[in-house]
Every structure is written in structure tokens, then in C-alpha cells.
Amino acid sequence: MSDMVARTGRHQQRYEAGCRLVAGCIPFRCRDSDDSSDAKSEKVVEVLMIDSTSGPGLLFPKGGWENDETVEQAAVREAFEEAGVRGELMDLLGHYHFKSKTLQDEFSPEGLCKAAMFALLVKEELELWPEQSVRKRKWLFIPEAIKSCRHEWMREVLEEGFSKWYHEGA
Fold it and tell me: Which residues form the signal peptide (predicted)?
């Protein structure tokens, strides 16, 4: 399979107790603060979000976890396919349940999904990636990202999972 083609189709999807298993991440970077009034340089965190193909608001990369990959490999693949970034997968931020309006099928007629979400320290931002024609990416500070989240459960990942993890790990 070509590296520049996003995986499609549902035949390899993993399910557990009627839930489609999903993997995703919050891509992030740390950089020096623009505030030069401080003698010691403060680090600021930005997270990378992508636009939704099905409506307003921004998302974090995520998608189905498939039978031939680990959950970590799935999260890394989704970051590459949807956001065009590669990096170092950090901690699991938690598992989050949500309902997909667009992805209901015979194995999950309600569209129930369980997402394993990770933090991904971005090391490389690619100029070409599989979904670049349908997605734009945007670096945001956390408060702005919280306001921009299309889905409540993604806001929860950012506010509870990521922010708590980042502050403890800093």
C-alpha cells in the first residue's frame, strides 16, 4: 500500500461489546513564549487541530483501529493520514466513549465508539499527506482549542486528559 493513501473501508475494523474501537491523538509542540519581558523563557504548548469534513469546528486526528495494527500504530497512522504529522507517541490520555452519527453499521448500529486517545509530540510537519486536499490544520493554544472543538468528548480529552497529563509531566 502506498504511504500517501489513507486507509479506507470497514472490513478490518475492531469492535468490542458493540463499540467500534477508535485510536487518536492530540498532536502538540512546545515552544518559547513570545513574552520577552520575562528573563527566563517560558515554554508554551500548542495543539494541532484539523477541520472536520462534515461540518464546522475542529477535531483531533482519530479513526478506526484495525486488526493488523496495535492501538499505538493506529493513533500514529491517523495523525499522519489526517494531519500530516509524525512524532513521538507519549502517554495514553484515556478512553472516551462517543456516538458517531456518520459511522453506524451492522456491528455497531447505534454508532457507539470507544476512543483510545494519546498525546503525540510532533517532530515533523509534512508538506504532503494523504488527506491534505480535504483537511486544513491549525496550531492553537489550549484555551482556543477548547473553544474550537467540534465534539464535547474531544473537549473533555483536551481539558481533562491532556491538560492534566501535560501539567503533571511538565
Answer: none
pLDDT in tens, 133-153: 999 999 999 999 999 999 999
Q: Report if residue 137 sits inside a domain.
A: yes
Cα angle 99-73-68, degrees, rounded to a multiple of 5: 85
User: What's the whole-model pTM score?
Assistant: 0.84
Q: How many domains does the chain have?
A: 1
Nearest CA to 93 among 149, 19, 8, 154?
A: 154
Alpha-carbon distance 58 to 21, whole Å? Answer: 21
For residue 38, the model assigns a pLDDT of: 54
Say if 59 falls within a structural domain: yes
| Domain assignment present for 124 | yes
Identify the three-state secondary structure at position 12: coil
Nearest to 59 by CA among 158, 128, 143, 141: 158
| CATH number of the domain to which 109 belongs | 3.90.79.10
Range 107-111, long-range pairs (CB < 8 A, 24+ positions): 107/13, 107/15, 107/18, 107/20, 108/15, 108/18, 108/19, 108/20, 110/18, 111/20
* Tens digit of each residue's pLDDT (9 = 90 or more) over 48-58: 999 988 888 89
Three-class secondary structure of residue 124 per DSSP: strand
